[in-house]
Write a structure and sequence with these properties.
Layout: H1 2-14, H2 16-35, H3 43-58, H4 68-75, H5 81-92, H6 94-119, H7 131-153, H8 158-188, H9 192-230
Length: about 230
């Protein structure tokens, strides 16, 4: 645990300048968009930065592995492959989501204080327990695993290549499931109850596949890191 903490702190120190610049950019972005909505801060502003900023940052998670000049130093750090994996995962997934939410709350408090000083009345405080917000964070964790895998597989333009690959995969999946659904509907059209049951089954299978995406991507990512060490 101590080595993992040191590894996380070391990563944050290396990228400290980028982090501070990003925080300033996010504050400016939130200010510009909240002004357009009468000063009211929307949860969609958090969600937008969560996804866009998170995916861009995640796509650069393993830049050390793809740079031959620094790969040797990174792979010889006194830590295990699991610690390498966890440090990058914590920073770009759960850590990023929670840190951004804390930043969002700080911004909201500052906005309330400034608004009260200037206009003598307050504005609503953000509800961090909003189901929409919690679902957005959960969805981000799952989608993050895909970008995380792409970051270790693709050496350059990993985010674009990952998006292209996922898009092609979804197109093939949609065509495949669509053709199967059409055939089943044609065969079972006289049996409405059976069709209803199949619909429930298909929905259940899709939910299971959705939840299985993250563990699958984590396992493949971890094994890919091990391959880099062998090389």
């Amino acid at each position: 645990m101590k080595r993992l903490n040191r590894l996380i702190i070391n990563d944050l120190k290396i990228n400290s300048k980028v982090i501070f610049i990003s925080i300033a950019a996010v504050f400016v972005f939130w200010t510009l968009l909240s002004l357009g909505s009468g000063g009211v801060l929307s949860l969609s502003l958090y969600t937008f930065v969560l996804y866009v900023g998170g995916f861009v940052m995640t796509s650069r998670s393993f830049k050390e592995l793809h740079n031959s000049e620094i790969a040797y130093h990174y792979l010889t750090l006194p830590c295990s492959n699991l610690e390498r994996f966890l440090s990058k995962w914590v920073i770009t997934s759960v850590g990023y989501a929670i840190a951004l939410l804390a930043l969002f709350l700080i911004y909201n408090v500052l906005q309330i204080v400034i608004h009260y000083i200037l206009f003598s009345h307050g504005i609503p405080f953000i509800n961090i327990f909003d189901p929409v917000l919690l679902r957005s964070m959960g969805t981000y964790i799952i989608l993050h695993s895909i970008v995380f895998l792409g970051a270790v597989v693709f050496k350059r333009y990993s985010l674009l290549k990952t998006a292209l690959f996922v898009g092609c995969l979804m197109l093939v999946f949609t065509i495949f499931t669509g053709s199967i659904s059409f055939r089943l509907f044609s065969l079972w059209a006289p049996y409405a109850v059976q069709i209803q049951n199949v619909g429930v089954l298909v929905s259940f299978v899709l939910n299971v596949l959705w939840l299985a995406i993250a563990p699958f991507c984590w396992i493949v990512t971890f094994n890919r890191i091990k391959e880099y060490e062998i090389c």
